[in-house]
Amino acid sequence: MRMMLKVLANAITFSGYLAATVAGHAQTVSFDTIQKYAPSIFMNAYDNNHPASVESFFAQSVLVDQNGNTISNTVTPAILAANTSSSNYLRPANNVFPSSSNDFESGGSIVSAGNNTGQSNAPVYVKVIDNGTSIDLKYYMFYTWNGFQGFQVGVITNFKTQPYFMNWSRFASHYGDWEHVTVRISEDTNTLIGVYYSQHGEAQFVATPSLDGTHPIVYPGWNSHANYAVSGTNINTQILDSPGIIPVSWLKVVDVTTNSGNFVYYNKPNPFYSNGVQWKPWQDASQLVLLDNNAVAAQWLSFNGNWGPTVTNAIEHPPTLPSGATDELYTLAQGGNFLGLLSKYVVASGPQGPQTAGWNVSNEP
């Protein structure tokens, strides 16, 4: 029993064969199994918004009510559990939000992993669900900020269109960003059935994902952190079709995971790892935080409010593009925003926690 309790603590170094019991089910999943299927996550090199622990997020936040009045300048799991109203929310204590002139880095520090690759040592939170015919291992990832939305724009220069990737302030930016990957395995835990990748409130199922050994490979989108099984450019919406308005040929809302291509940005991470940032929580057992029967986590999971305020983001100039495309895009965006065409990307709110959002049940299709 003492060993079992040790496993279920919030941040513990694991050794040997330890087991976590799924609440409400007789099925037991070993920590070795949780570690075996934990994802290998490869982030875009230009992403300033790094993974974080909930503790570091609480340390820089205040809790406020629906009118913006401060409930508590100190945020702890117990305080969140005592103030669970859905109208309460967290906001940064310094009230500083990213902007085109202040695209700061956030989240946990990134260290070198060699070969010009960075490494995140942030935790991943794990929920185990026995479906009766299969088991879901839900890996929750948290980021302090959802950064500026990624776009791909075709710029006409000397009668030729050249594509560029850019992040654009302050489209879609919000405080707090919960994402998840669900690994579905057989009841005997020996077979990987498939993986669900969270993408903007939905999930893509992949039956045969690429693996890093036994670990599903995950590619988060630049700044948005929507998760994909394959590295590349994932088009959400094509806003402007060719021929467009010179010098802008076309404009697409995208999640870009690959580091290749022409990137324009407000601020490049420092240090900059051109081969991207890897996040492999299975390499250090203390990075896998089990949520089942975790008394501390149960407190912050019970918080029904939002992990960030609802904001109407001002549209600022894109980062510098050639041929006058920066000013042209800004003019187009101002017109589109006046007509109410961009509200989906302008009005943003912090997320609900995994439990409030309904993730702590087997809800994958």
Characteristic key phrases:
7 helices, 25 strands, mainly beta, 7-stranded mixed sheet, 365 residues
Averaged pLDDT? 91
Weakly predicted, low-confidence segments? 1-26
Tell me, briefly, the overall form: globular
Count the helices. How many? 7
Description:
The chain is mainly beta and 365 residues long. It is 14% helix and 35% strand. It has helices at residues 2-7, 31-37, 54-59, 77-82, 295-301, 325-338, 343-346; strands spanning 19-21, 28-30, 40-43, 61-64, 70-72, 89-92, 110-112, 118-120, 124-130, 134-146, 150-157, 160-167, 174-186, 192-199, 202-206, 211-212, 215-220, 227-228, 233-240, 248-256, 263-264, 277-279, 288-290, 311-312, 347-348. The longest helix has 14 residues, at 325-338.
Fold blueprint:
Elements: H1 2-7, E1 19-21, E2 28-30, H2 31-37, E3 40-43, H3 54-59, E4 61-64, E5 70-72, H4 77-82, E6 89-92, E7 110-112, E8 118-120, E9 124-130, E10 134-146, E11 150-157, E12 160-167, E13 174-186, E14 192-199, E15 202-206, E16 211-212, E17 215-220, E18 227-228, E19 233-240, E20 248-256, E21 263-264, E22 277-279, E23 288-290, H5 295-301, E24 311-312, H6 325-338, H7 343-346, E25 347-348
Parallel strand pairs: 3-17, 8-22, 9-23, 12-21
Antiparallel strand pairs: 1-2, 3-22, 4-5, 4-6, 7-8, 9-10, 10-13, 11-12, 11-20, 13-14, 14-15, 16-17, 17-18, 19-20, 24-25
